[in-house]
Amino acid sequence: MCCKYDGVYFKTRLEVVWATFFDLAGWEWDANPPAVGDWKPDFEVRFYCPHSACPDYHKLLVSVLPIDTLENVRGHPALSYEYSVPNNVADAGALFGNHPSVSRWAIVHGINGGYEGLFTRVANVDALWAQAESMVPHF
Predict the structure, then answer these.
(1) Please, which pLDDT band fits residue 82 given cuts at 50, 70 and 90?
(2) Is 79 strand, coil or helix?
């Protein structure tokens, strides 16, 4: 284990930065949710949705990867859970990389839905990310 944040031990500094970012963004999170088949997500996150046709909150199961782009990521289990996670109340699986611009998921939103990233759900993403990174020491 690398680091402890909010009483939870994490494998990597990047996971701690993400947990810090979730707190700054006002998202609820739990680390190390139960496995889904052969996939072990790093986080379960919940964020408020004001859309009248949506539940009050959307929930994602998130894998954190030390990557700078999603272009070459193929076959990761999180990507096989678009729009739902069987036997789970999560809306989808998601991948989060080295920066909020490296985030992707697909959920039903209202009567539509589609692919989203953090810039569609969080205001001031870059400022919050910079703040989160500055709060987590390098190990």
Answers:
(1) confident
(2) helix
